[in-house]
TrEMBL record:
Residues 4-235 form the ABC transporter domain. SMART domains: AAA. One of its GO terms (molecular function) is ATP binding. PROSITE patterns: ABC_TRANSPORTER_1, ABC_TRANSPORTER_2. Belongs to the ABC transporter superfamily. This is ABC transporter ATP-binding protein. Keywords: ATP-binding, Cell membrane, Membrane, Nucleotide-binding, Transport. InterPro entries: AAA+_ATPase, ABC_transporter-like_ATP-bd, ABC_transporter-like_CS, ABC_transporter_ATP-bind, P-loop_NTPase. It comes from the Bacteria.
Length: 235
């Protein structure tokens, strides 16, 4: 069974664009199995970010339907975690408090956040230790390197045990060494916890290294296509 199921999905960003038939994504059909790690590569402007907005329910398709975990998506999903190119940690919060943020926001955690804070903090510390950030819990973002901030932002995306992790160019701003270190960390976390991952990247090597399946989103005049090209066993 598919965890993510896009069925002939079209999106125009507004009515004016719709009237002109200018779609940001056009007729996308794509199925992602439970626990599968997919990567989407493609040139700038081909619709990768739009695909992510659709996958997490931030945008509704103009046509077609999207099912996540067997249910039609009708609004923003709480079962996803997200990380982007910029780590975007809140500067006035420590590493630990940044990682705890989703638990303060996402139901059902929010209702008992105060009562269970120490339990949640233990969980966050374990997660931080698993990405090599033990001892940095009380530091502020400016006291961390770019790679460390990105690791913390991945912890923040995973703290509420999402079923799906959406990553939009999360390693793009890092040096090559740090990037490859983070690839291994992400692969280990995903192998242990089996969440779904959708990774958008410009880096084909990254896509092939990390993903079970790599899709190329291509741009021919006025048309966006998603095509499965490579299926590799995990090394
Ligand atoms: P990237 O290529 O890194 O995904 P973009 O530079 O394409 O990012 O887009 C950055 C932001 O600007 C996105 O949130 C996108 O939705 C928005 N955006 C991109 N193109 C347009 C546009 N033509 N009109 C309005 N917003 C846009
Ligand atoms: P990518 O992430 O692959 O760079 P996007 O999904 O950002 O591509 O953009 C796909 C197309 O949709 C582009 O033509 C872009 O200009 C357009 N677009 C993106 N966001 C908006 C927006 N908010 N309003 C109007 N057009 C947009």
């Amino acid at each position: 069974t598919s965890f993510v199921d896009f069925r002939n999905v079209w999106l125009a960003y507004n009515d004016e664009l719709l009237a002109k038939r200018q779609y940001a994504v056009e007729d996308i059909s794509l199925q992602v199995g439970t626990g599968e790690f997919i990567a989407i590569v493609g040139p700038s402007g081909c619709g990768k970010s739009t695909f992510m907005k659709l996958a997490t329910g931030l945008k509704r398709p103009s046509q077609g339907s999207i099912l996540i975990d067997g249910r039609e998506v009708t609004g923003p999903l709480k079962i996803t975690g997200m990380a982007f190119q910029a780590p975007s940690l809140l500067p006035w919060r420590t590493t630990l408090d940044n990682v705890l943020l989703p638990l303060e926001i996402v139901e059902p955690y929010r209702s008992n956040f105060r009562a269970r804070r120490s339990e949640y903090a233990e969980k966050a510390k374990k997660l931080l230790a698993s990405v090599g950030l033990a001892g940095y819990e009380d530091k502020f973002p400016w006291q961390l390197s770019g790679g460390m901030q990105q690791r913390a932002s991945i912890c923040r995306a995973l703290i509420h045990e999402p079923k799906m992790l959406l990553l939009d160019e999360p390693f793009g701003a890092l040096d090559a060494f740090t990037r490859e270190e983070l690839w291994c960390i992400l692969r280990d976390l995903q192998a242990a916890q089996k969440f779904n991952v959708i990774l958008v990247t410009h880096d084909l090597r990254e896509a092939v290294f990390l993903a079970d399946t790599v899709y190329v989103m291509s741009r021919s005049p006025g048309r966006m296509l998603v095509r499965k090209t490579i299926e590799l066993p995990r090394p």
